[in-house]
Design goal:
Distance between the termini: 35 Å
Number of helices: 5
Strand content: 15-25%
Order of helices and strands: EHEEHEEEHEEHEEHE
Number of domains: 1
Radius of gyration: 18 Å
Strand order of the largest sheet: 7-8-9-10-6-2-1-11
Structural class: alpha/beta
CATH class: Alpha Beta
Helix content: 10-25%
């Protein structure tokens, strides 16, 4: 069976430094210097990211207001519109070579959705798809929703968005990925935007849906979900990372509230 490595940094990762890191690792995967797929499961500080199809009008506050709130804003190469990353949210970056799986982007997106449906299912939640709106949803009905049926269900909150997905692929190697809301903390910040460009959408989290789970619990469940959805074995990276994987830059604040020395790296912010 094929395998992928799972990297779970204990500290929050600054978004821009983490983005440059992803690009470097993806380049090495493309060039053959990294022989194994990698799934990174982490947490960012507050940031809005705008995908290549984003509508500027979907950021509903000024840059000055974002600065006052301490929320960064970054334009990126992934697909999709605007979303928020921040504390209380598990962000996952599958740096996968699809030539070893299936060279089909739609298949890849469905597999990520499936992995996340399995992840939330391990906590007793029935996640499902809403056709035309990539991501994972919960609510009523607890089954996949057609594109035709979605608008009224989204508008009245009977279906709520739990996880967002946006990827970029170059030469069949992926980066960017998904964001799964774990605690209630991220939910207030979605008021700064039209999440994923879907007007009227109600964002939710595991905690808001009655799940009592910490970020580390959800990381473990996500690794297992990817293992099952992709039919490959997950191996914890630990300290045994290949030389082709550079150190992941992190902030000084650990997700468990303690302090640890950061590993700052200043590199390019745009590609």
């Amino acid at each position: 069976m094929n395998s992928f490595r799972v990297l779970r940094p204990g500290n929050r990762v600054p978004y821009l430094a983490g983005l440059d890191w992803q690009r470097e690792v993806a380049d090495r995967r493309i060039e053959g210097g990294l022989e194994e797929d990698l799934l990174v499961l982490l947490e960012h500080g507050p940031v809005l990211t705008l995908g290549r199809n984003a509508d500027e009008a979907h950021v509903t506050v000024s840059d000055a207001a974002l600065e006052r709130l301490g929320v960064d804003r970054v334009e990126v190469e992934r697909g999709g519109d605007v979303t928020y990353h921040g504390p209380g949210q598990l962000v996952g970056y599958p740096i996968f070579d699809l030539r070893g799986h299936r060279k089909d982007l739609h298949w890849f997106l469905r597999r990520i959705e499936d992995a996340l449906i399995r992840t939330v299912g391990s906590f007793g939640l029935d996640g499902f798809r809403v056709e035309g709106h990539t991501g994972v949803w919960v609510g009523e009905p607890d089954d996949d929703v057609s594109e035709e049926d979605a608008p009224p269900l989204v508008a009245d909150g009977r279906v709520r968005k739990l996880a967002s997905i946006g990827i970029h692929v170059s030469r069949w190697v992926s980066w960017h990925g998904f964001a799964l809301n774990v605690t209630r903390e991220p939910l207030e910040s979605f008021r700064l935007i039209v999440p994923c460009g879907i007007r009227g959408v109600r964002m939710t989290s595991l905690e808001a849906e009655g799940v009592d789970a910490g970020l580390d619990d959800v990381r473990r469940a996500a690794a297992a979900g990817f293992e099952s959805a992709f039919g490959v074995a997950a191996r914890d990276a630990g300290e045994d990372l290949p030389d082709a994987v550079p150190p992941l830059p992190t902030e000084g604040a650990r997700t468990d509230g303690t302090r640890e020395q950061s590993q700052p790296r200043t590199r390019r912010a745009a590609r």
